[in-house]
Amino acid sequence: MEKQFMTFSIDDGMYGVNILGIKEINYSQRFTSVPLSAEHLVGLLNLRGQIVTVLDMSVPLGYKQREIHDESSLLIMKTTMELSHVARKHGIQTHKDTVGFIVDRIGDVISCEEKEIEPVPAHMDAEVSKYLEGVVKRDDALVGIVAVPELLKFAGV
């Protein structure tokens, strides 16, 4: 079965999220900070009347907290309710509330067969690898496929 992933960059790493779980890509940087929150919680965003919890995806993936810059983008994920019609068929899990992940740069959509997704390399840090479902080889780069449910557990949302 073919799968498609929206790729993005964090520092020098390339990652992907199943495109079926993405509601939209947003470039807003007008977040309301949450006092005394964890370092991975960037803040809250009012998106057309809907409150979105904005998370820094880089922290659980082993990077330092990112500075938001002009190319920073926000991946707004679909909620469980929005995914109910495809979740079972494609094995996608998300959250009951709307969340967004801040990333450095948005890349391309890549397609691959399920059999092309390889296990996370054994030498990768165990604390980081639990947030990845696997890797896909593309040209001379590896794309880490993000395990969104694990990332949401880390974030505590």
From TrEMBL:
Superkingdom in the source lineage: Bacteria
Chain coiled-coil ranges: none
GO BP annotation list: chemotaxis; signal transduction
Domain CheW-like, residue spans: 2-157
Any one of the GO CC terms: cytosol
Name of protein: Purine-binding chemotaxis protein CheW
Species name: Acanthopleuribacter pedis
